[in-house]
Design a protein that fits this description.
It contains 7 helices and 13 strands. By secondary structure, it is an alpha+beta fold. Helix 4 packs antiparallel against helix 6.
């Protein structure tokens, strides 16, 4: 299917404007997390730690805190604030409650997801073998993640490329419903940064001497970005061309779905396929 900027809708959103995230003071967040106590650490991200806390209004939150302030942490902080300030409310998309920025601190505040994330429930939960996710729950997670991703891709006047759909960014609420989070690599796609053209790449199995006839190609609307995402969840055409389309998120969703259904890390699934293929060749 061919898209172009004339048919790729950037029409005005029909939904209400999102409630802007609150600007918290550092004092408020110190109080909420018991001065960032190590007892309140519930996880980590590439640029910092994640704390659980309770705000003055009694609501439970997670607070992402950068280990240090540099160009990389500032870019990822700004990406999350921009997405949180832009995306309209949806039950399957994590809502940014607020943020705090000082010369020495970068902090993001989100609602607490009581059942952590899909990665934890598939591979990190101590009782996951005795009490695995049942198929009804897995179906609920798959559908919720799909709805959340569709919402990001159909924001009306903008479209959000997540760029890092993977089990660790599929959060689970108290009802084990999927809530998409992890927007540090997200790109807001709009008329000023979107281009239309040919996406072209060589398949992974192609020899270096293959001619151009072996290339895959299609026409689409894309954003030129530096490569980002989790290994195994990045579409091959994005790896090859640096042109990121909405299809990259769909590829990542499909990969996540394989892990959800099998309970096996995608790298192990790929290795299993390679070994079976090699065995069939040798036979």
């Amino acid at each position: 299917m061919v898209f172009n900027l004339r048919t790729f809708s950037f029409a005005e959103s029909v939904e209400d404007d999102p409630t802007p995230p609150k600007s918290f003071s550092l004092k408020e967040l110190r109080r909420a997390t018991d001065n960032f106590s190590s007892k309140n650490i519930v996880g980590s991200i590439c640029w910092g730690k994640v704390y659980k806390g309770r705000l003055a209004d009694g609501s439970q939150v997670t607070v992402k805190r950068a280990n240090y302030v540099n160009r990389s942490s500032e870019e990822e902080f700004e990406a999350e604030v921009q997405v949180g300030s832009t995306v309209s409310t949806h039950p399957n998309v994590l809502r940014l409650r607020g943020f705090c920025r000082t010369k020495k601190e970068l902090l993001l505040v989100y609602p607490l997801m009581i059942n952590k994330n899909l990665f934890h429930n598939l591979r990190g939960r101590p009782d996951r073998f005795a009490r695995p996710l049942d198929w009804t729950t897995r179906k609920r997670i798959a559908l919720g993640a799909a709805r959340g991703l569709a919402h990001l891709h159909n924001q009306g006047n903008i479209k959000i490329l997540h760029r890092n759909i993977c089990p660790i960014n599929i959060l689970l609420n108290v009802h084990f419903e999927a809530v998409i989070g992890g927007f540090s690599l997200a790109v807001i796609m709009h008329e000023n940064n979107a281009e239309e053209g040919t996406i072209e790449w060589l398949p992974w199995s192609a020899d270096s001497g293959s001619d151009s006839q072996s290339c895959h190609r299609y026409e689409d609307v894309y954003v030129n970005t530096t490569l980002g995402g989790t290994v195994g969840f990045v579409a091959p055409e994005y790896c090859h061309s640096g042109k990121c389309t909405l299809k990259n998120d769909v590829f990542a969703y499909g990969t996540m779905l394989l892990e959800l259904m099998s309970g096996t890390r995608i790298s192990k699934l790929k290795l299993s396929v390679i070994l079976r293929t090699r065995t069939s060749w040798e036979g």
